[in-house]
Design goal:
The complex is a heterodimer of chains A (about 110) and B (about 110). Chain A is an all-beta fold and about 110 residues long. Helix content of chain A is about 0%, strand content about 55%. Chain A is built from no helices and 11 strands. In chain A, strands 2, 4, 5, 6, 9, 10 and 11 form a 7-stranded mixed beta sheet that branches. Chain A has a 4-stranded antiparallel beta sheet with strand order 1-3-8-7, with no helix packed on it. In chain A, strand 4 and strand 5 form a beta hairpin. Chain B has about 110 residues and is mainly β. Chain B has no helices and 9 strands. In chain B, the strands form 2 sheets. A 5-stranded mixed beta sheet of chain B has the order 1-9-8-3-4, with no helix packed on it. A 4-stranded antiparallel beta sheet of chain B has the order 2-7-6-5, with no helix packed on it. In chain B, strand 6 and strand 7 form a beta hairpin. Classes of the chains: A mainly beta (about 110), B mainly beta (about 110). The interface between A and B is medium-sized, with 23 and 22 residues.
């Protein structure tokens, strides 16, 4: 079946630094990938839709200059959290669609 | 996407069947019912989906009422590893848009 690999699984960074999260479709090509954020005891909230070769589409309230998305190939999308703050600490999850929807295992970001 | 309503939490004894309900009274004719679950600190996992017929796979069964306004996910013999948040999502297949997650049902399987 379709597999989506997400890396790293957890990362701790200092305030003001940037962190890059990778999402790869291992056995299929994904022209569209999705990025979600999940705070403790809450549901997944869609942040943005990543389209290969074009600009991402961000949900209302998500800062596109803070959460940089690059989808340069059909198998890789990256999310960079720039100038991270403690309130950016969250669980970030990517997803790709091939018929159904497959999710990465998530990245736990802690900003200290 | 049609709105879904699920109970916030449920308990189930290990080895018994877990029946998770979902209401989707505004579902349209071309929308499918999808079920996903999320075990703590992991990405969501696909369970099953259906349009109008009942479906069964190695993980679960999906029972959809004849009017399609509600459905039930059945885990026939729940184990401790089935403890997770279960999400019922209604949407057209291959729409190209992201899945929108509600609050889901937190299922606790107890020994």
């Amino acid at each position: 079946g379709a597999v989506v690999s997400q890396h790293p699984s957890r990362v701790i960074c200092k305030s003001g630094t940037s962190v890059k999260i990778e999402c790869r479709s291992l056995d299929f090509q994904a022209t569209t990938m999705f990025w979600y954020r999940q705070f403790p005891k809450q549901s997944l909230m869609l942040m943005a839709t990543s389209n290969e070769g074009s600009k991402a589409t961000y949900e209302q309230g998500v800062e596109k200059d803070k959460f940089l998305i690059n989808h340069a190939s059909l198998t890789l999308s990256t999310l960079t959290v720039t100038s991270a703050h403690p309130e950016d600490s969250s669980f970030y999850i990517c997803s790709a669609s091939l018929g159904g929807y497959t999710f990465g295992s998530g990245t736990r970001l802690t900003v200290v | 996407d049609a709105k879904t309503t699920q109970p916030p939490s449920m308990d189930c004894a290990e080895g018994r069947a877990a029946n998770l309900p979902c209401n989707h009274s505004t579902i349209s004719g071309n929308e499918y019912v999808y079920w996903y679950r999320q075990i703590h600190s992991q990405g969501p996992q696909y369970i099953i989906h259906g349009l109008k017929n009942n479906e069964t796979n190695e993980m679960a069964s999906l029972i959809i009422t004849e009017d399609r306004k509600s459905s039930t996910l059945i885990l026939p013999h729940a184990t401790l590893r089935d403890t997770a948040v279960y999400y019922c999502i209604v949407r057209q297949t291959n729409s190209g848009y992201a899945l929108n997650f509600g609050k889901g049902t937190s299922l606790l399987v107890t020994p």
